[in-house]
Amino acid sequence: MRLAELCELAPDDQRAPRMMASCHIELGHLAEAEAMIAPWLTGKEIDPEAALLGGRLRAAQGRDEEALALLEWARTGAGERLSVLLTVGSLHLTRDRLPEAAATFEQALAIDPENASARTGLGVTWQRLGRNEDAAEQLMRSIALMHRQSFAHHHLGLALLALGHFEWALRAFTVSLSFNEANPEAHEKLAEIYGRLDQRAVSDQHARAAMGWRRRLAGRK
Fold first, then answer.
1. Is-contact 21 37, C-beta < 8 A?
2. What's the half-sphere exposure (Cβ side, CA atoms, 13 Å) at 54?
3. Do 155 and 142 touch, CB atoms closer than 8 A?
4. CA angle 109, 72, 41 (to 5 degrees)
5. Residues 159-194: pLDDT tens digits?
6. 33, 133, 183, 188: least surrounded by Cβ within 10 Å?
């Protein structure tokens, strides 16, 4: 059954309309999303999930200040809603709002210290802020909770490389590529590390792989 039919069958249930609004944002149907979301953003007490959708929409529209205000409203009003906090944190991270991302992921971890996604988000945030020791700790804890995370292994490699732990970084990038080989930066970092270790043939192999993946990924755009 399609979401539109669910909306008609249960007009008082907000789950289907909100799923539909989210789909409109993902597909770039911003006018349709605006028509659905705007009524939910009126009044003084906006529901955190509605604020989250509004923040995503305003970010997609390039209205960053409004997006940030709505995302902060969603974060502060989320309470124990871990899914809201993780989405807000990820959006802040995507937009390079690193202090806001860190605060949101820390709020999520206060609710669930064993949440791998929150630890990955905080670790990546610390890595981008240059706090590489803190980043490595968070990312290793996340990987212990959920090993199959290419993104986490990749940023662990970046943190370890910045700290000068070349062989550990090599291992992290290698594991990252085992889950997602279409990562030119990881290939470039491995080319750099193998070059430092005087393994020129392997270094050249990763340099070629990096160039190949960059061409392929550029062709998809």
1. yes
2. 23
3. no
4. 130
5. 999 999 999 999 999 999 999 999 999 999 999 999
6. 133
